[in-house]
Amino acid sequence: MEIRRPLPIGFWKGTSLALALDLIAAALSGGATTRRIGLEEGELEASQVFITIDLSSFPDRSQIEEEIAASLAQIKDSKREDPAVPIRFPGEKRLSLRKENLELGIPVDERIWNEICSL
């Protein structure tokens, strides 16, 4: 039976990559692994890993971009649990919100804004 609903991505490769990045981040930063963060109150000392890849350094950038676009489109076209809720990728909502805030300004609760102005 084909339902075309997206499942969590990763399985053993994704889980292994997440574990490796967690351990590398903790080792390089001296911060906590996710195991330790879960044991302590307040989620302190979280470690982060940021990886940047320059696609222009690869021989066929256009082929890579086409493959990325096709893969993302396939996921976006998957059947949704709730048709009213869009399928989004990590950071996608944040980019949309950033664009909106640049166009319309950053929304601030009026009560908080009044407190700031009274300082």
TrEMBL record:
The enzyme's E.C. designation: 1.1.1.130
InterPro entries referenced in this protein's UniProt entry, alphabetically: Mal/L-sulf/L-lact_DH-like_NADP, Mal/L-sulfo/L-lacto_DH-like_sf, Malate/L-lactate_DH-like
Molecular function GO labels: 3-dehydro-L-gulonate 2-dehydrogenase activity
Positions of transmembrane segments: none
Oxidoreductase among keywords: yes
Keyword Oxidoreductase: yes
Assigned keywords, A-Z: Oxidoreductase
Protein's recorded name: 2,3-diketo-L-gulonate reductase
Organism of this sequence: bioreactor metagenome
Gene: dlgD_6
